[in-house]
Amino acid sequence: MLAQLVTDGLTWTPGQVLVLFVVLGAVLGGMGLYGKLVALAGAGATVPLPGFGYTMVEGIAHAVKQKGALGLLTGGLTAAAGGIKAAVLFGLGAALAFRPKG
Question: How far apart are the C-alpha atoms of 53 and 20, rounded to whole Å?
């Protein structure tokens, strides 16, 4: 609902709203606030776009503790790899299963 209000009220494109929500999740995760929402809402808070930003920040924090500065580059992608892989595979499956209307 919030994404729709932003799109309608600010006449932003869907891509801009997507980036806003991912960055918002990352910022709230970095401040320690999104973790509290995850503890309250469970998996429902980790699935949407802000959850992706939060997952990347958490992955970076974990990787920096283990690998040092190299974790800044690898942590976010490692933490989000499962979700990215699933999105690619599901997208491929849908593309193979359905014909586009044209």
Answer: 10
Count CB atoms within 10 A of the CB of residue 71.
18
H-type alpha helices, 1-102: 2-10, 14-30, 34-41, 49-67, 71-97
In eight-state DSSP terms, residue 100 is P
State the pTM of this model: 0.72
| Distance (Å, whole) CA 35 – CA 2 | 20
Sign of CA dihedral 22, 64, 82, 88: positive
pLDDT digits (tens, 9 = 90+) for 45-87: 777 788 888 888 989 999 999 999 988 888 988 888 888 898 8
Decide: 66 and 87 in contact? Cβ < 8 Å. no
Report the distance separating Cα 48 and Cα 35, nearest Å: 14
Over the stretch 4-34, which tens digit does the pLDDT of each residue have?
888 888 888 888 888 998 999 899 989 989 8
